[in-house]
């Protein structure tokens, strides 16, 4: 990777977008680090592809319909109810 892949102006621009203040020495440090990161991505491009099975199979079971609880049974153990609904604590 060439050293001009990331320049200090780009780092300053990204820092401004992120609303992060950077000193000049930090800009230089991040410029080098960003260039290193981009170089790592180029290394990943060199990794050979792995053969895999192309046909995927749904391993989930089909949905089954069942009878549900009626409102009275559902609310029976609720600590507090109001107008046929569960009542929870107020959130401020």
From TrEMBL:
Its EC number is 6.3.5.-. SUPFAM superfamilies: Glu-tRNAGln amidotransferase C subunit. Pfam families: GatC. One of its GO terms (molecular function) is glutaminyl-tRNA synthase (glutamine-hydrolyzing) activity. One of its GO terms (biological process) is glutaminyl-tRNAGln biosynthesis via transamidation. Keywords: ATP-binding, Ligase, Nucleotide-binding, Protein biosynthesis, Transferase. Residues 61-92 are annotated as: Disordered. It comes from the Archaea. Residues 61-75 have a biased composition (Basic and acidic residues). It catalyses: L-glutamyl-tRNA(Gln) + L-glutamine + ATP + H2O = L-glutaminyl-tRNA(Gln) + L-glutamate + ADP + phosphate + H(+); L-aspartyl-tRNA(Asn) + L-glutamine + ATP + H2O = L-asparaginyl-tRNA(Asn) + L-glutamate + ADP + phosphate + 2 H(+). Heterotrimer of A, B and C subunits. Allows the formation of correctly charged Asn-tRNA(Asn) or Gln-tRNA(Gln) through the transamidation of misacylated Asp-tRNA(Asn) or Glu-tRNA(Gln) in organisms which lack either or both of asparaginyl-tRNA or glutaminyl-tRNA synthetases. The reaction takes place in the presence of glutamine and ATP through an activated phospho-Asp-tRNA(Asn) or phospho-Glu-tRNA(Gln). Belongs to the GatC family. This is Aspartyl/glutamyl-tRNA(Asn/Gln) amidotransferase subunit C. It comes from Halobiforma nitratireducens JCM 10879.
